[in-house]
């Protein structure tokens, strides 16, 4: 049986569901598996970046700031906070470094109104999102 604490660099699922609620996710997370929660975070991140890009193009500064802020919170309070750096080994440490970098780039993209930086952030996150989707079928949990 799959155990998220033992088999991955990620921590407890309760923290992820709390983080997901805090970043404004509009879905039921009460019965979601840890794997599904991370998938929802990836999707919310991409959606936030798309919203930020549209707002940036339309000159909607407040909307852009909120969308980028949401993406940064997903990275910090959801994805990064769910890492188990102590037991996750090099993978968890590498993901933490990536998430730190993404947070910095999102902040700069907001300050500089730089769509290319948003593209970079999407380009860095999309391979993780796809890999996470691909392993979804291999993860067995009581509820998905």
Task: Write up this protein.
This protein has helices at 4-7, 13-22, 34-57, 61-80, 85-112, 115-135. With 144 residues, it is an all-alpha fold. Residues 1-8 have low confidence and may be disordered. It is built from 6 helices and no strands. 33% of the residues are buried. The longest helix has 28 residues, at 85-112. It has a single domain, classed as Flagellar protein FliS (Four Helix Bundle (Hemerythrin (Met), subunit A), Up-down Bundle). Helix 5 runs antiparallel to helix 6.
Q: Indicate the mean pLDDT.
A: 84
Strand content: under 5%
Largest pleated sheet: none
Order of helices and strands: HHHHHH
What general form does the structure show?
globular
Structural class, from secondary structure content? mainly alpha
Oligomeric state of this protein: single chain
Q: Roughly how much helix do the residues carry, as a percent range?
A: over 70%
- What's the tally of helices? 6
CATH topology: Four Helix Bundle (Hemerythrin (Met), subunit A)
> What is the CA–CA distance across the termini?
14 Å
Please name the fourth-level CATH homologous superfamily: Flagellar protein FliS
Quickly name the level 1 CATH class: Mainly Alpha
Number of domains: 1
> From the coordinates shown, what is the CATH architecture?
Up-down Bundle
Topology:
Layout: H1 4-7, H2 13-22, H3 34-57, H4 61-80, H5 85-112, H6 115-135
Helix pairs in contact: 2-3, 2-4, 3-4, 3-6, 4-5, 5-6
Briefly summarize what is shown.
By secondary structure, the chain is mainly alpha-helical. It has helices spanning about 5, 15-20, 35-55, 60-80, 85-110, 115-135. It starts with a helix and ends in a 9-residue tail after the last helix.
